[in-house]
Amino acid sequence: MNKPLNERRCAVCRELYTPKRIGLKITKVCLNAACVLDWAQGVKAKDLKKKEREDKKINAQKKRDFYSKDLPYQLKLCQKVFNRLRVLQELKWFADRGLEPVCISCGKPKGGDNWCCGHFKTVGAQSGLRFDKLNTYLQHNRHCNMALSGDIYGTKNTMGYIAGLKYRFGDDAGQAIIDYCETNTETRKWTCDELIAMRKEWNAEIRQLKKELEIN
C-alpha cells in the first residue's frame, strides 16, 4: 500500500496541497481548475517546443546529408576554404622571410585593396588546377584579380602575373611554374567524400596559420 504523500506547493499557484498518484505519476498542481488548466497548457506548449526542436534537428541532418552528396555545393565550399588557406600560406611565406606581402601581378603591397587567392589559370579554363598551390598566389582582389581579370600579361603600370612569377622566384623557377600550369590541362574530378576530407584538412591548417600569424 502506498504511503500518503507529503504536502507540496502547487507548480502554478504555489499554495500548499496534498499531491495524488495517478497511475505511476504524481500530480504537480492542486485541484483548482484554473491551476490544472494552466499546467496542462504549459505541458502542451513544452511538448510542442520539444517537438519543434527535434524536427529542426532532423531537418538540419537531412540538409547536411543532402549537401554532402551535392558535388557543385561541395566544390563551392572547398573553393572558399582553399582560397582562404592560400592567402594565409602566402602571408606566412612573406612573414618567414621578413618581407612585406606584395601582389603577384603588380608587385605592390595591399594598400587600400584586399588580398585574394589569384589563380594563374582560371577554374573555368583549367579546372584541374583549381586547388593547386602552384597555380595560386597572393593578389589584389579588386584591382588586379577582378578589374584586370588576373592581370596575366601586365599593363603599362604593372608587370603582370607571368613576369611576377619570374620576379618572385627567379627566371628558371618562375618559368617552371608557368610551364607546369600551361601543360596540366587534364580535367580533375573529385568525389564529395574527397572534397569533405580535403576541406577538413585545410581548415585545420587555417587554424594553425592564424595562430602563427596572430590573426583572429
SSE layout and pairing:
Elements: E1 8-9, E2 16-17, E3 21-22, E4 25-26, H1 33-67, H2 71-96, E5 115-119, E6 136-140, H3 141-147, H4 161-169, H5 171-183, H6 192-213
Antiparallel strand pairs: 1-2, 3-4, 5-6
Provide a short characterization of the protein structure.
The strands form 3 sheets. A two-stranded antiparallel sheet has the order 1-2. It has a two-stranded antiparallel ribbon with strand order 3-4. It has 216 residues and is mostly helical.
Characteristic terms for this protein:
216 residues, mainly alpha, 2 domains, two-stranded antiparallel ribbon, two-stranded antiparallel sheet, 6 strands
Give the strand order, joined by hyphens, for the main sheet.
Answer: 1-2
Based on Cα principal axes, name the global outline.
elongated
* Structural class label: mainly alpha
Query: Unreliable stretches, pLDDT < 50, 5 or more residues?
Result: none
Content of β-strand: 5-15%
How far apart are the first and last residues' alpha carbons, in Å? 66 Å
Helix-strand string = EEEEHHEEHHHH
Count of extended strands? 6
Q: Roughly what percent helix?
A: 40-55%
The number of helical runs is 6
Number of separate structural domains: 2
Largest sheet: 2 strands, antiparallel
Instruction: Give the C-alpha Rg.
Output: 31 Å
On the 0-100 scale, what is the average pLDDT? 91
